[in-house]
Amino acid sequence: MAVTQVPTELAEPEPSFGARILGWMTTTDHKKIGILYMVTAFLFFLIGGILALLIRSELARPGLQFVSDQTYNELFTMHGTIMIFLFVMPVFSGFANYVMPLMIGAPDVAFPRINALSFWMVPAAGLIMLSGFLVKGGAAAAGWTSYTTLSEQSAQLGEHGQDLWIVGLVIIAAASLLGSINFITTILKMRAPGMTMFRMPIFVWNTLVTSLLGLLAIPVLSAALIMLFIDRNLGGSFFDPVHGGNTILWQNMFWFFGHPEVYILILPAFGIISEVIPVFSRKPLFGYRAFVFATLSIGALSFAVWAHHMFATGAVLLPFFSFMTFLISVPTGVKMFNWIATMWGGKIKMATPMLFSIGFLAMFLIGGINGAFAAVVPVDFAITDTYFVVAHLHYVLFGGSVFAIFAGFYFWMPKFTGKFLSERLGKWHFWIMIIGFNLTFFPMHMLGLMGMQRRIADYPANEGLTGYNEIATVGAFLIAVSILIFIWNFVSTLRKPRTATDDPWEANTLEWATSSPPPPQNFTHLIRVRSERPVFDWREGRKALDQAEKEMQP
Amino acid sequence: MSARPAPPPSVTVGHKPKGIPSALLGMILFVSSEIMFFGGFFGAYFDVRSQHTVWPPAVPPIEPLEIFPIATILTILLVTSSFTMQAGFFAIRRGDRRGLIRWIKVTLALGAAFLLLQLYDYSQLGFGIRDGIFATFFYTMTGFHFAHVFGGALFLYVIMMQAYRGEFSADDYTGVEAATIYWHFVDVVWIGLFLTYYVLK
Amino acid sequence: MQPASNHASQTRTLYDITFVFAAVIFVIVGGLIVVSAIKFRSKPGDDTLPKQIHGNTKLEIVWIAVPTVIVLVLFVLSALTLGKIDTAEANSMTINVTGFQWEWKFTYPSYTLADGTALAITGVSGPLDAQPGVPASQWPTLGLELNQPVHFHLESDDVIHSFFIPVFLFKRDVIPGHPNDFWLTPDRAGSFVGKCAELCGLYHSGMLFNVRVMPKAEFDQWIQQQLAAFQKAQNACKTPQNGVIQVVAKSIQFNTKCMQVPSNAVTKIDFSNEDPGTPHNIEVYTNSSATTRLTGATGPTNTIVGVSQTTYTIPSGLQPGTYYFKCDVHPGMNGKFVVK
């Protein structure tokens, strides 16, 4: 089927600046909302990153040099909260918003106006949370997990940073919930003819499972947050053991949400990697069905592993949660092997998206393996709540999710804008980031094993922790440099002319069957899907046809 | 409705209208998340309860909840309203829009009676939300249920006004079905609360 | 980290086994990633497609089965070690550990003063960097006897802490309303550091303590020193400064066991309750069984819920003698009240 370039800008006069702003603010187009999500998330990524640099600067040496204990506690609390709820979740919502409807051949999502609503709730929630820095007592300072009863104490002092944190999170929870409902309905109801469930791209499958996890896990967080708010402000005692409550209840509710949340943060990354690797290896994804079942089983098991965050509380059934935790690593391992097998025997084009994907594989491999240490319960007793765990979660969420986010961004940028990011700058970005990342987080394994506990503003000078901390701080600033290169790359690309064709990477999935960027309703003709790789089949079919015609001619 | 121009026919053709309507699917998904929301509260309640040998805890002393008469009347009101709403749904499936409006009116009346009686009950209880863990749970859970009944009633009101304007027919009753599902859901939550607070003492 | 207890050595062994598994998996899988990324790069100008392989059921079964076996082995090893380290030990000495913001208190019920009060060791910790900072010499010291099994009983009155001694490769959360217990036997003498590993507020990073594992003779001598120092602290009576005695209640404990006031002058007690959400008061009784109040009142008076302060007034003209004070809410909080 031939695909023709569609003129995306009709011969209308360029709208005024104000009209364009208004247009973005009132848009219900899934692509524009996707871009709004990504841009907003990236701004929060920069804020969260600055907080991280402050944290690393403070920890470079023993003693307090830059911030007070109180400020330090606010910094890591807000760093974690921002990165998880205001960067990784929204940026994946952005990718899913932009790409998923295109991938299934739909003109938009099922509920476009609800989609706009759920987007606008995110920056509002972020501003509410950040405004904590301006109120008496400062922002929330009880960690992104906000364990009771510590998170209830500040209420007695009339400090409301924690309350702003609660309100912000409740809004984000509501936004994610609406987003989940929207995505599930879109995927189940709006697929193009022939797009059966088992022809859906893995990214769509992972968006579906992610949304299901969000749908079922996030309400429990909302309930817990409301209970915390009632405890703090209305005289409740849900989590206060002195007045009949149970403080471990918070951890159970939080992690019942929190572990599915971990997969909400990583499954879309798996989805992106599963799209990028086949395209640049020029092979189909190895073991598509195994991949789908692995995603489904990860989704199901993620509801039965929450208490592995609580082994040291002495209040959970250790063998059960340990067993489930080991079990959930199997489908994740299956995915790793499928990715490698996809590359194996391929003809790999080492463009920046592929580079980031391979970086993802390597970093996520480490993040998976060091996670196994924490699943071995006796070893967990030694390393939990130390920098070993900080290393683990950053190998998963930074080495995993963030590398995948950049892989996806370099990959889809031509589709978003019709313009390629610079390959040269992209490679600089990649190599500086991966070096900086490993300098920052690998020494944290050693720090953890040496007994450096998490969330400390300061450490004694005589425990031999200083050297590794210095290295980690240098690494953090290298990461910052790589991000500056990325920003420069992005901004300079926006000023370049459009050079991307419909299908510049020779890809597989339907978003490449329309113009770059796509027209308002995505497709100008009816899409019919007959395989898992429709665009591949059309392209190769056309090539074969051209070849045959050439041979027919004398 | 969306301000955006309708997509060209060629794009929408083939997006099958068969199967469950999107709006209804959306409502079912929303209700499943609501089940998890209330599930969180119920789980928390039983977790805390299992930590206590005396329930409600002896300190601070509070008057026990009485199953009769108010709680029983509340239950009868809401369960009946579930049946009247279902009758309205059956009516519109037959194409009887007037029947639908009539049944929604009955349902709304029952729902309003429930809300008013619940408020009266709150005013009569000898304890407030601050009076210990049991009281906090009681007010939080019944309070959120109250809010959901109120929201459901608003939803029904909107459906009724739409019906007055001539919407819904034997072929087009997705909105009514969604509202009915939601209304049954708040009823089921109440039954859970009734069993938890008044029966399983 | 060189392990320093019987359990720590087992944990260390398990860690080493896990490390071997991890290293092997890392080398194999990481090697596969590197090899496939280098070996299968497309040659410049080669536009042909590689062989389109969609999967291989046999291979996929292998890489489901092998990881499953590996994790099952790790699970069994982990469960076996867990069974050994997370269990009660016979003939153990109990130490009650109380965590509070941002200090530790270690109580040894097996060692008591003449009046039956168990030896309690406290110190000063918290702000690591305040000027001047708290030096390690002031942190509370947990003394342990070499090769003597210890039973730790953990309690908290305010927020969740985590009792972490890195050389024992072990930590256990200290949770309000949920006491925890664990057992181990220190098997390496030396001085170590202990920490709080769960974020507990402002000075979490400074909530440190010393750990000293000593051979029996040295430990016994140390205990005697501690008992003597504790006795001295118990006997020390607070006397009014400018007519005011300052008393602090923290972690269900008064900061004094004795108050001494003159009979010929009015004394004020500035009472500060630093236990958030917990009620305390100071009531003076004529006898130690606390039946008759000096003021004649019949119910708890002037109970305040922390964090807050109040002032009590002790009238002049009391009959000289020894009385008693206690907190009506917490009978364990008590002491002597001497009128001279």
Write a brief structural summary.
With 554 residues, chain A is mainly alpha-helical. Chain A is built from 16 helices and no strands.
State the main characteristics.
heterotrimer; A: 554 residues; mainly alpha; 16 helices; disordered N terminus; B: 201 residues; elongated
Structural class of chain A: mainly alpha
Averaged pLDDT of chain B, please? 89
Helix content of chain A: 55-70%
Radius of gyration of chain A: 24 Å
Q: Report, as a whole number of angstroms, the end-to-end distance of chain B.
A: 49 Å
Which regions of chain B contain 5 or more consecutive residues with pLDDT less than 50? 1-15
Order of helices and strands of chain A, N to C?
HHHHHHHHHHHHHHHH
Number of extended strands of chain B: 0
Radius of gyration of chain B (CA) equals 20 Å
What would the principal axes of the Cα set say about the shape of chain B? elongated
| Uncertain regions spanning at least 5 consecutive residues of chain A | 1-11
Strand content of chain A: under 5%
- How many beta-strand segments of chain A? 0
Q: Which helices and strands appear, and what pairs or packs with what?
A:
The complex is a heterotrimer of chains A (554), B (201) and C (340).
Chain A: H1 17-26, H2 30-59, H3 69-103, H4 112-130, H5 150-156, H6 161-189, H7 202-233, H8 247-281, H9 288-301, H10 318-343, H11 352-375, H12 377-383, H13 387-417, H14 423-449, H15 466-494, H16 534-552
Helix pairs in contact in A: 2-3, 2-4, 2-15, 3-4, 3-6, 3-8, 3-13, 4-6, 5-7, 6-7, 7-8, 7-9, 8-10, 8-11, 8-13, 9-10, 10-11, 11-13, 11-14, 13-14, 14-15
Chain B: H1 9-12, H2 22-50, H3 67-93, H4 97-124, H5 132-164, H6 174-199
Chain C: H1 6-39, H2 57-85, E1 93-100, E2 103-112, E3 118-121, E4 141-145, E5 150-156, E6 161-165, E7 170-174, E8 180-184, E9 190-196, E10 209-214, H3 216-235, E11 244-249, E12 258-261, E13 267-273, E14 279-280, E15 283-285, E16 304-305, E17 308-314, E18 321-326, E19 334-339
Parallel strand pairs in C: 1-5, 4-10, 11-13, 12-19
Antiparallel strand pairs in C: 1-2, 2-3, 5-8, 6-7, 6-9, 9-10, 13-17, 14-16, 15-18, 18-19
Helix pairs in contact in C: 1-2
